[in-house]
Amino acid sequence: MATGNGKALRAIAIYKFAKGLALLVLAVAAFRLVRTPSLDHFARWIAQLPLRSGHGMVLHWIDALLGLTPRRFELIGIGASIYATLFLVEGWGLWQRKRWAEYLTVFATASLIPFEVWEIYHHFTWLKVLALAVNVAIVIYLWRIVRRGG
Question: What's the pTM value of the predicted model, to 2 decimals?
Fold first, then answer.
């Protein structure tokens, strides 16, 4: 494999590792909040924060979070764990320059793009647009490598 490809694959692997680790943190938090005392403690802590009416979006997000049921936290934890595993496997495989990881990353990343577009359409943020652009670039780059055979 050419050195340029190796550096790019390492950069993509780091990106996948970062996403995987962030989702692991989310999963741990969701599983921890399933227990009602933890959620109650979190709600009391949030209530003591000096949030003013100018933080409407933050307050809305907190209200939505506190309105989730324990079952919903479990589902969030399970989903985050599954995606974290996928991203960490992709990252490890790309770091090791495994051919199967290139294929896995192309197909897994491409399969999530329609959901990212839907999410941007319904809840637009520039950060989501940036993430979509990065994922599209990864798919195009890896697809070219896969088609050329390395």
Answer: 0.76
